[in-house]
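Running this now, will post back.
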Amino acid sequence: MSDRGGIPLTAALILLAVCLGVVDSIIPRPVPFMKLGLSNLPAVICSVRLGFRRTIALNTTRALAVALLTGSLATPAFLLSLAGAVASALAMSAVSRGYPSFLSMTGVSVCGACASVWSQLGVASQVLPGLPVQALVIPVTLWGTASGAVVGIAAGLVDGHLARHGVLSE
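Update: finished.
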């Protein structure tokens, strides 16, 4: 896809990510860190289809826009969101080079989700002294793996639908 051809798709993916981010923020959670991460669905597609520059733009724009819309811009939650957005963009862009020959879209998503939760845990440990980081590593990794798998499966379905309708080109 040409660089110019990716601009409308990137804009559409950003809009979708912001909408899903707002929806994700209003879904009740049993534990604060247990957010499904629906807004990462467009980022997974972007990392596989459009590369790092567009993915980092999508993730940082989404984090800022969702924080503005939900009133969390001047809170530690925004720092956690931004850290997760940058880490997941880096991780997904790095591993998406193996897509589709070595890694599925679900695999790309799980890598991004785990990078996100680990970076958020790191930032949280700095913001909240005394946080039992060692006790949280396994639960956040399990949650990142599960939520990344769900988002990755959904991203694969959406990507296939978009490809069938000519929105994406190989």
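The radius of gyration is 15 Å. More later if anyone needs it.
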